[in-house]
Structure formats: structure tokens, C-alpha cells
Amino acid sequence: MHLFDKTQPDLNWDNPEVREAVEHVMRFWLDQGVDGFRLDVINFISKYPGLPDDIKDATNGFTYPLGAKYYAMGPRLHEYLRGIGRVLKEYDAFSVGEMPFVRGASEVLKSVASDRGELAMTFIFEM
Fold first, then answer.
1. Rounded to an integer, what distance in angstroms lies between the CA atom of residue 63 and that of residue 50?
2. Is 40 a catalytic residue?
3. Under a CB-based contact definition with an 8 Å cutoff, are residues 39 and 96 in contact?
């Protein structure tokens, strides 16, 4: 992701063609026999519209992590995770998602609740 290295692409998950392409890639590997996926920083795939700047904080100059409230756990994250989950369910495949900068356990629990069809499990280094 562009957040980590400016040479890496940052996919626009708001574009349905991007989501279709991701599903195509997933199906390719699942058809090859993989049993699932580790999805690093998966909670960064939904960004807030307009990509607003973060606000300054009186203590350290900026809030930490800079801008994370606008790209971690974005507004359409669970919709996108359900799309991934639908493909994985077809193949009875497994998923584990890394989710840094989570704002509250309830969002994580939504991501892994068995009745929601999103991720099988998550790991969060901060916890």
C-alpha cells in the first residue's frame, strides 16, 4: 500500500472493477489448491471519502498514527470483507486478517462473527 512505500499501488476498493479483479485473483489461487489467505492490513482497504488531513494534537504536533482514523476501519470495510468472505465460503477456505490501529473491540468482533461471513480470524499486534 502507498501508505508504506510510495512505489506500492493503493487499490481503490470503491471501484467495483477492482473488487472483481481481487475476487478473480483469489479464485485463481483457490483453484490452484491454496486453503486460504493471510490478509495484511486488511482494515485499510476502505478510506474515508476525500482523504481528509488529520488534525494536529497539542501534545505531539499530530495525532498518532497520522491519519489512521481516515484509513483504518473505513466506512465500507465490512461490505468489502463480506465480498472476500463470499468467495472464501465457496471454497471452504480460511482467512486471517491483520488489523492494526483498530478503534474498539466491537469492530474486530464484527469482522469475525460467524453470522457475518467476513474473516475467519484476525490478529492485532497492539492487543
1. 19
2. yes
3. yes
Q: What is the pLDDT of residue 60?
A: 52
Nearest to 1 by CA among 71, 70, 49: 71
Using pLDDT thresholds of 50, 70 and 90, give the confidence band for residue 59: low
User: Can you tell me the distance from the alpha carbon of 85 to that of 74, in angstroms, rounded to the nearest whole number?
Assistant: 17
Domains in the chain: boundaries: 16-123
Active site residue 118: no
Q: Which of 20, 40, 57, 90 is catalytic?
A: 40
Average pLDDT, the chain: 87
- Active-site annotation holder among 10, 23, 54, 98: 98
Query: What's the burial of 110, exposed, middle or buried (CB within 10 Å: 0-12/13-18/19+)?
Result: middle
For residues 71-81, average pLDDT:
93
Residue 78, C-alpha cell as written in the block: 465490512
CA distances from 61 to 14, 18, 53, 57, 66 (A): 31, 36, 13, 5, 10
